[in-house]
Specification:
Elements lengths: L7 H7 L7 H15 L3 E5 L4 H9 L24 E8 L2 E3 L4 H10 L3 E2 L11 E3 L6 H11 L10
Antiparallel strand pairs: 1-2, 2-3, 2-5, 4-5
Amino acid sequence: MVAKTWDKFSDERIALLHPKIREDAATLINTVEEKTGIKLRVTQGFRSFAEQDALYEQGRTKKGKIVTNAKGGESYHNYGLALDVCEIRGREAIWECDWKKIAPIAKGLGWEWGGDWKSFPDRPHFQKAFGKSEKQLLKLYEALGRGAKFVDVG
């Protein structure tokens, strides 16, 4: 059973992540709140290849701003190894969080932070790669055959 956070929506999204990071995800949310008072909500976790492809098309062939450079299979979300967060104050989502407080806590818990990316910083994004690239994860996924949900990350 996964530890619970303050937020039922986050708990539902965490439950869909790779089993190997579910506990880590709850710990991230709870530790940030304990140390800073910032209540984080998981806004995105696992994302199918089709959902990823649709998101990739945003700002390209569909209306909207470009929000990702990753096609289906090229994102850690596609393997349940990433999550995006926002702060919740009252009932309001705050997207410009105090990343200077949040990111060091997350990194101290072993998360990679998208805000450190040089070419396309993604501050709400945190992931655990287990030393595997997206290409390696895709090969593992393809080897499992259709219907498989999670790859073995060791």
